[in-house]
């Protein structure tokens, strides 16, 4: 991209490690560094390391490589239950183990609490309903790490002021509303998870709505050409 814009890919995907995401993005033509990818998985890993917690990990096998050394052995009592998108773990026995840990004092960490995501065969349940179920049964409150957390967006920005950034995303709640609550302009694209009328579901509404990422990026570049002080935009990859 022929501009001085800083580009960062922010994602709630909890199925794939950062290394997997990096390879996928470079294979489709993006020239990026691994440091340009900021995921809720990475944020959760940093949190566990900072707090020196051992956890019961409800994660997909692909995501586990980012959490090496942070899980509990069978005879250990976890400090936390960490839940991401892990369809193979969302069955009674595994969820009941998580429930028992929470009742024994473990903290509930939701890497994100998305309602649904897009698969090749259509929309599918996200981890949010399982997080809410554990909250209800264990009478606890989850700490949500990823989007739409305000802290997630601000950490991804680093030293870039929020009012100089734009978030492009297909999820009106997690991407656009979350970003706007952090002082970042939210551009909604009508692809991926987008459903007709999504732009009417949040207040304030998205700063702009575009048919796809292409038009959103063109709009940002036009601002730059016209002398805008926009210095960064963030792009969210869909959870697949």
TrEMBL record:
Cofactor (UniProt): Mg(2+)
GO cellular component: cytoplasm; nucleus
Localization annotation: Cytoplasm; Nucleus
Superkingdom of the source species: Eukaryota
This protein's record includes keyword Transmembrane: no
The EC number(s) this enzyme carries: 3.6.1.1
EC class: hydrolase
Catalysed reactions, semicolon-separated: diphosphate + H2O = 2 phosphate + H(+)
Pfam families, sorted: Hydrolase_6, Hydrolase_like
Keyword set includes Nucleus: yes
InterPro entries to which the protein is assigned, alphabetical: HAD-like_sf, HAD-SF_hydro_IA, HAD-SF_hydro_IIA, HAD_sf, LHPP/HDHD2
Predominant location: cytoplasm
Cited SUPFAM superfamilies: HAD-like
Single GO MF annotation: inorganic diphosphate phosphatase activity
Keywords annotated in UniProt: Cytoplasm, Hydrolase, Magnesium, Metal-binding, Nucleus
Family: Belongs to the HAD-like hydrolase superfamily.
NCBIfam families recorded: HAD-SF-IA-v1 (TIGR01549), HAD-SF-IIA-hyp3 (TIGR01458)
Function noted in UniProt: Phosphatase that hydrolyzes imidodiphosphate, 3-phosphohistidine and 6-phospholysine. Has broad substrate specificity and can also hydrolyze inorganic diphosphate, but with lower efficiency.
Entry protein name: Haloacid dehalogenase-like hydrolase domain-containing protein 2
Organism: Cryptolaemus montrouzieri
């Amino acid at each position: 991209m022929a501009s001085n814009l800083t580009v960062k890919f922010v994602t709630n995907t909890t199925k794939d490690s950062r290394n997997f995401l990096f390879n996928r993005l470079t294979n489709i033509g993006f020239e990026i560094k691994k440091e340009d990818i900021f995921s809720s998985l990475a944020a959760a890993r940093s949190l566990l390391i900072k707090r020196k917690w051992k956890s019961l990990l409800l994660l997909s096998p692909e995501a586990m490589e980012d959490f090496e050394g942070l899980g509990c052995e069978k005879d250990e009592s976890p400090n936390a239950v960490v839940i991401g998108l892990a369809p193979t773990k969302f069955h009674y026995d595994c969820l009941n183990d998580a429930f028992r840990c929470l009742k024994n004092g473990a903290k509930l960490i939701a890497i994100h609490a998305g309602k649904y995501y897009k698969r090749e065969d259509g929309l599918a349940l996200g981890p949010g309903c399982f997080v809410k179920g554990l909250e209800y049964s264990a009478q606890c409150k989850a700490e949500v790490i990823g989007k739409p957390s305000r802290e997630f967006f601000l950490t991804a920005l680093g030293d870039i002021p929020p009012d100089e950034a734009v978030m492009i995303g297909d999820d009106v709640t997690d991407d656009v509303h979350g970003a706007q609550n952090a002082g970042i302009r939210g551009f909604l694209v009508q692809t991926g998870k987008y459903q007709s009328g999504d732009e009417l579901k949040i207040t304030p509404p998205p700063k702009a709505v575009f048919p796809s990422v292409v038009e959103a990026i063109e709009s940002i570049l036009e601002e730059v050409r016209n002398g805008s002080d926009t210095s960064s935009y963030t792009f969210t990859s869909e959870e697949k």
